Amino acid sequence: MTVVTSLLLSVAVIPTVTASPADASACRSAPYSASLSVTDVFDQYTGVEVFSHPTSGTYRTTTQCRDIQIRNTGDGKVSGPFHACVVFAGRATCNYWTYVPAGQWRNLAVDVKDGTRFYIWISINLSTYYSAKAVGDW
């Protein structure tokens, strides 16, 4: 009886985690799907501005990730925190704005179908910060 009980306990504590390329652990590692940056070289902006990436064409989701994820690679001083959102091709507005602090990853959209075309909008206060830098994986 104790053999059966300990066997059942052993089976109960074995985790059933399956990793797939779409898990976040498979994403968020170089080489990334894209690098994004905004720089006010001539100090022409004085307030919150929204920039679209890519500047031409669209990004396309892959089988690598289920989510559209972005990491702020700025230093928090010159390249500051920003807000970002996803605009799916054919739409005029973004899904929702997400705050992305320096050095942090954030999901901008989850469970996105493979092959979906999209843009990323970045909103940053260029009166306070000179630039925004990020990498993305999808």
Properties at a glance:
mainly beta; 138 residues; globular; four-stranded antiparallel beta sheet; 1 helix
Which structural class is indicated by helix and strand composition? mainly beta
Work out the radius of gyration.
20 Å
**In percent, how much strand structure appears in the residues?**
35-45%
Strand element count? 9
Characterize the largest beta sheet: strand count, sense, and whether it forms a barrel.
Answer: 5 strands, antiparallel
Summarize the structure.
The protein is mainly β and 138 residues long. Helices cover 9% and strands 36% of the residues. The radius of gyration is 20 Å and the shape is globular.
